[in-house]
């Protein structure tokens, strides 16, 4: 086990003692408040999930709950259903006039879709997609900001059985091109542009640039969001509003097999290019539906806001599929949290009487830094539940969130999960679980999580190890798109094919609560966004002056981690600010603004093993000014002090 894991263990141990019971009034009304549910799930997990699957509408019932040939799972085998039907059609009789999507633009403009309207908009667009040639099984790339059409596009794809691949709008043209090429996607849905901090972002230009590096694209559908002048390529580009005009307003939902792909979501991993995580229909819908209902305690009159972007898994599972399959009203916001001022979120929570708010620890840390005077200007008493996701939340921001936003009456659900897990796996149930600031508490009922050593033995509470999931769950990853070998090697080979390797380190405390210690692979978690060191390094290395580059995560007060680069230049290149700026720009261009390095150090060498492999553990220690531990296996131990000095000089 790496030395850093042990070290983190000691640091985070101090926080263990606090146990906060969920507020009594909350418990009384909670959807789930009987702890017996854990026992019931444990006694017979398959039966437990089978009963929950009844909460989804099926055209044909499954024949078998689970087919498990490790590491391949099939859930609700033989079942037929449609995700868009479950998110829309089945609510029409009971809540057709209820608001499904409540959207606010950065400029303050508001749009609403009732479930009836969402059905019509989705059906029309689904037919328009068909008219453009999209067929069942075609992967459609969605490259859109936070506007209602992004959700409508996802649901329309699901309706006709065309898996979507949503690419975060903040990603670069190159990142878009990689994802289109990997999915061999022929269709792209985009917008002319959108607002961010009052500025127009020319999104269509970026889309065009990405497509110019992609081979497969035949049609591009453009939403007119801003009404600004853009170039339309005849024959390739069509306007959303034009193609829906002639499209029929009813569209029969395709009867999808439980194991048909619902979507692809790219995420960063240890090596090379991003992986296309494949999620299928039946298990994913059951998993997200039930977790949304139990973890967020969704009720008929809730106004639910998950502030994630639809371009991430959190947006898929807990803006779209989970809440809409529950018939909830979801709130969406287009822009930045500090525009026009630092109380924008609180202003909207007050105005729309939002009841549930789910955000990232990085956001909470920023709010805390901005100060409690911002939320104090607003009445946030409509809130009844708060959540976090994406990275560990330290106790300070947890308490700040609990007091200043939740008025000490809202439980906080700290939810641990991943793109690959599809649904929340470790979390409090807000009507049952006493909270501990900084811990996601316990596995969801039916989930078997454990902390293991390299050999797969259970690790005693108090010590760090790898977080493993030892039993299949409905919304689990099915494969890596086009790369079955990578699927097996990454997730199912450390301890054999029946134990899922999360690539997180964790430990248990004496109450059997889980504490997440961070990633063990080469992934940097910047504000809850996973960035692969390999991608970042190849961006730097593609600069003509760079011979070799290494990238590490550096602790950052707001973002949790930020990118820090070490660069070896070719002889004759000048080590100056101008070059540093070029390297920063290169990363922003290749990956996106979130990846912009906090610091760059020029060096002649990197800490390497005798076989020439960069020792990540040591580089991480250097970057974060920690004890580097044993350096005896380095071929060049003297580099450690030299780099430490250079990093310090940057401060
Ligand atoms: C949903 C999502 C997954 C990685 C995961 C872990 C970190 C997520 C967390 C958390 C501590 C939490 N992570 N939730 N760490 N506490 N509550 O974020 O998916 O983008 O795939 O990231 O995020 O390291 O492995 P994804």
TrEMBL record:
Signal peptide: none
EC number: 6.2.1.1
Cofactor(s) this protein cannot do without: Mg(2+)
Residues the record lists as binding CoA: 196-199, 314
Domain Acetyl-coenzyme A synthetase N-terminal: 36-87
Binding site for ATP: 390-392, 414-419, 504, 519, 530
Biological-process GO terms, alphabetical: acetyl-CoA biosynthetic process from acetate; carbon fixation by 3-hydroxypropionate cycle
Cross-referenced SUPFAM superfamilies: Acetyl-CoA synthetase-like
Reactions catalysed according to its record: acetate + ATP + CoA = acetyl-CoA + AMP + diphosphate
Binding site for Mg(2+): 543, 546
Modified sites of kind N6-acetyllysine: 613
Statement: the UniProt record of this protein carries the keyword Membrane: no
PTM characteristics: Acetylated. Deacetylation by the SIR2-homolog deacetylase activates the enzyme.
Alphabetical UniProt keywords: Acetylation, ATP-binding, Ligase, Magnesium, Metal-binding, Nucleotide-binding
AMP-dependent synthetase/ligase domain segment(s): 89-473
One GO MF term attached to the UniProt entry: AMP binding
AMP-binding enzyme C-terminal domain ranges (all copies): 535-613
Pfam family, one: ACAS_N
Database matches in PANTHER family: ACETYL-COENZYME A SYNTHETASE, ACETYL-COENZYME A SYNTHETASE 1
Its job: Catalyzes the conversion of acetate into acetyl-CoA (AcCoA), an essential intermediate at the junction of anabolic and catabolic pathways. AcsA undergoes a two-step reaction. In the first half reaction, AcsA combines acetate with ATP to form acetyl-adenylate (AcAMP) intermediate. In the second half reaction, it can then transfer the acetyl group from AcAMP to the sulfhydryl group of CoA, forming the product AcCoA.
Entry similarity comment: Belongs to the ATP-dependent AMP-binding enzyme family.
Protein name, UniProt field: Acetyl-coenzyme A synthetase
Organism: Methanohalobium evestigatum (strain ATCC BAA-1072 / DSM 3721 / NBRC 107634 / OCM 161 / Z-7303)
Gene: acsA
């Amino acid at each position: 086990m790496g030395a850093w894991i042990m070290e983190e263990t000691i640091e985070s141990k101090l926080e263990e003692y606090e146990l906060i019971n969920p507020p009594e009034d909350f418990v009384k009304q909670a959807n789930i408040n009987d702890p017996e549910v854990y026992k019931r799930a444990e006694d017979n997990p398959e039966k437990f999930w089978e009963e929950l699957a009844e909460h989804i509408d099926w055209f044909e019932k499954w024949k078998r709950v689970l087919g498990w040939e490790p590491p391949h799972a099939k859930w609700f085998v033989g079942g037929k259903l449609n995700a868009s039907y479950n998110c829309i059609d089945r609510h029409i009789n009971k809540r057709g006039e209820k608001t499904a999507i409540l959207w606010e633009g950065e400029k303050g403009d508001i749009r609403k879709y009732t479930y009836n309207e969402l059905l019509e908009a989705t059906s029309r667009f689904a037919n328009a997609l068909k008219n453009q040639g999209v067929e069942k099984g075609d992967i459609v790339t969605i490259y859109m900001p936070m506007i209602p059409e992004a959700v409508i596009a996802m649901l329309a794809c699901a309706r006709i059985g065309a898996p979507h691949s949503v690419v975060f709008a903040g990603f670069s043209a190159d990142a878009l091109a990689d994802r289109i090429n990997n999915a061999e996607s022929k269709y792209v849905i985009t917008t002319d542009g959108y607002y961010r901090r009052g500025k127009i972002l020319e999104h269509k230009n970026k889309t065009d640039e990405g497509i110019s590096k992609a081979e497969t694209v035949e049609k591009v559908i453009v939403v007119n969001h801003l009404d600004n002048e853009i170039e339309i390529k005849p024959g390739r580009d069509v306007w959303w509003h034009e193609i829906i005009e002639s499209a029929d307003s009813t569209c029969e939902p395709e009867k999808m097999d439980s194991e048909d792909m619902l979507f692809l979501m790219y995420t960063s991993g240890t090596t090379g290019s991003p992986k296309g995580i494949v999620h299928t229909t039946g298990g994913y819908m059951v998993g997200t539906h039930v977790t949304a209902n139990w973890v967020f305690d969704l009720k008929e009159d809730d106004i639910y806001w998950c502030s994630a972007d639809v371009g991430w898994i959190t947006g898929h599972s807990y803006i779209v599929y989970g809440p809409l399959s529950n018939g909830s009203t979801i709130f969406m916001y287009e822009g930045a949290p500090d525009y026009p001022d630092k109380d924008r979120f609180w202003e909207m929570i007050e105005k729309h009487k939002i009841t549930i708010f789910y955000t990232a620890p990085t956001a909470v840390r920023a709010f805390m830094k901005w100060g409690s005077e911002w939320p104090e200007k607003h009445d946030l008493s409509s809130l009844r539940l708060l959540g976090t996701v994406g990275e560990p939340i330290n106790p300070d921001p947890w308490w700040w969130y609990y007091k200043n936003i939740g008025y000490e009456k809202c439980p906080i659900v700290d939810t641990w999960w991943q793109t690959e897990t599809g649904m929340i796996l470790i979390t409090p149930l807000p009507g049952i679980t006493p909270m501990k600031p900084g811990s996601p508490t316990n596995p969801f009922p039916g989930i078997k999580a454990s902390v293991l050593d390299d050999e797969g033995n259970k690790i005693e509470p108090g010590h760090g190890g790898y977080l493993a999931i030892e039993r299949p769950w409905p919304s689990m990853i099915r494969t890596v798109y086009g790369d079955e070998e990578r699927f097996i090697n990454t997730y199912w080979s450390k301890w054999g094919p029946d134990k899922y390797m999360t690539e997180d380190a964790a430990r248990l405390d004496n109450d059997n609560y889980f504490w997440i210690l961070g990633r063990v692979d080469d992934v940097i978690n910047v504000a809850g966004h996973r960035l692969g060191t390999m991608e970042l390094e190849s961006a730097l290395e593609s600069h003509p002056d760079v011979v070799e580059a290494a990238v590490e995560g550096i602790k950052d007060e707001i973002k949790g981690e930020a990118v820090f680069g070490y660069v070896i230049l070719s002889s004759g290149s000048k080590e100056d600010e101008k070059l540093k700026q070029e390297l920063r720009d290169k990363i922003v261009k290749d990956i996106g603004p979130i990846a912009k390095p906090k610091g760059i150090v020029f060096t002649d060498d990197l800490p390497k093993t005798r076989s020439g492999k960069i020792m990540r553990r040591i580089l991480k220690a250097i970057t974060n000014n920690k004890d580097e531990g044993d350096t005896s296996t380095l071929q060049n131990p003297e580099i450690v002090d030299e780099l430490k000095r250079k990093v310090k000089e940057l401060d």
